[in-house]
Amino acid sequence: GVLELHLRISLVQLVVFILLVCNGFVIFASLLFCLGALSFKTTRMNYIGSFFLTLAQFSRRPFEIYPRILRHAVMFAGPIGFIAYVPAGYLLGKTQGIWGLSFVLCPLCFLISRYFWQHALATYTSAC
Questions:
Q1: Contact assessment for residue 119 and residue 37, using Cβ atoms and an 8 Å cutoff
Q2: pTM score, whole prediction
Q3: Can you tell me the distance from the alpha carbon of 30 to that of 120, in angstroms, rounded to the nearest whole number?
């Protein structure tokens, strides 16, 4: 896309973009770990996983096409927007500083998912 749009990217922009992609990966993995931790408490998790993947489809399109309330919900309530939209929006100049929140949200999501996972393992009782 960068080549098609003839964007001129500096080395700093490239490094920030790579870091934003890595942050998006960690945020996505953290959300999946939180869902995985729920599977220790419930027996029917397939619906929640499907819902999460459906929600993740929102990040495949530009966020400007969504109504403002939906845009904020997908960006912050379930931080799906930080996975795909924020890195691309940074390169295009559309995120207007919101990309900096990714560096706060990434470790926060990681720590929350770590807590949920450890709590789920500590309270797990097997079926045997």
A1: yes
A2: 0.77
A3: 14
Tell me if 15 sits within 8 A of 38, measured CB to CB. no
97, with CB counted inside 10 A (0-12, 13-18, 19+), is exposed
CA dist., res. 42 & res. 48, Å (int): 11
Determine whether 105 is exposed, middle or buried from the number of CB atoms within 10 Å of its CB (0-12, 13-18, 19+). buried
- What's the pLDDT at 37? 84
pLDDT tens sequence across 73-102:
766 666 777 787 788 888 888 877 788 888
With beta carbons less than 8 A apart as the criterion, state whether 103 and 73 touch. Answer: no
Residue 32, SS3? Answer: helix
Using CA atoms, how far apart are residues 121 and 119, in angstroms rounded to an integer?
A: 5
